[in-house]
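Minutes, structural biology subgroup

Action item carried over from last meeting: produce the structure token record for Zinc-dependent alcohol dehydrogenase family protein (Streptomyces gilvifuscus). EB confirmed the sequence was re-checked against the source entry. Recorded below for completeness.
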Amino acid sequence: MKGFVFHGPGKSSWQEVPDPGIQDPTDAVVRVDAVTICGTDLHILKGDVPEVRPGTVLGHEAVGEIVEIGTDVRTVRPGDRVLVSCITACGRCAYCRQAMYGQCRGGGGWALGHLIDGTQAEYVRVPHADLSVHALPSTLDAKEAVLLADIFPTAYEVGVLNGRVRPGDTVAVVGAGPVGLAAIATARLFSPERVVAVDLAAARLDAAKGLGADAVADAREDPEQLVADLTDGLGADVVIEAVGTPETFEMCTRMVRPGGHVANVGVHGAPATLHLEDLWIKNVTITTGLVDTSSTPTLLRMAAAGRLPAGALVTHTFPLNAMEEAYDVFGRAADTGALKVVLGEETHEAVAVRTT
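Output recorded by EB:
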């Protein structure tokens, strides 16, 4: 089979790789029908995630069909259509017993495309399949479902739930990329008074408006003042950092009101300064986190009922073997307008979206 292989910072290729097989009784092998590219994959290619060894197949999100299961797998069987979660969970360790699957100590956590071969291939081995794949409702198409493997649970859990968004809040989302847009969409579920989106790209700010942002701000044009003006000088109740740079994190800490929450979602490749000399007196809560995907079943039900605009984030589709072209388009989002790219023969043929 073929897969997209990381060969070190700045080096990757779509190439022949060994077929996966069952290694442990809890494994499943999935034929990949749809896969997407994550901003974290771009961080890996830049060398920001040194744990990823050269030779690893990248990718941690997919929709596909079960083709083989280990003897201990109970919840799925060959022929089932499933979502492959970005997080693998053993279900037995102390963290999994608290539904903190991202911190699994039983061989799970963020494993696919990180510590083991991932989903950007024709087939993928999924460890601990009972908790790491989800049967898909028949009404949910692949291009929507694949966005529930990572970005929607990440935005919802690490951004909205960690930030404790409540009715009547002012929520500022810094970064209107895919995760930031998903945070806007899921924050709206809690009836905030207003949601403010901050980004550099006009196209992303337009997308933010379409997903429910009440106000938008160019990051170069003093968004902190806009938030202050909207809140009588207090600042936002919840600020969600969805970029992952020192500048955006520090902006978020200046934008939050006393007693507010800063929920960091962005993947940081460089240190950021924590200005405790200003923050110590403000009763500010700052949270970080890797997604647990404990909310995935709920999000799947909402998407199947048409209550979650997952498909609205897909701007480009490609056949699976156009992985290198898809990475180029996704990596040049400022030029291409890409939000999420989805690869797979079924999704490429079924959806007419721009691919250049």
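Discussion: The chain has two domains: 2-150+293-350, 154-287.
Next step: EB to file the record with the rest of the batch.
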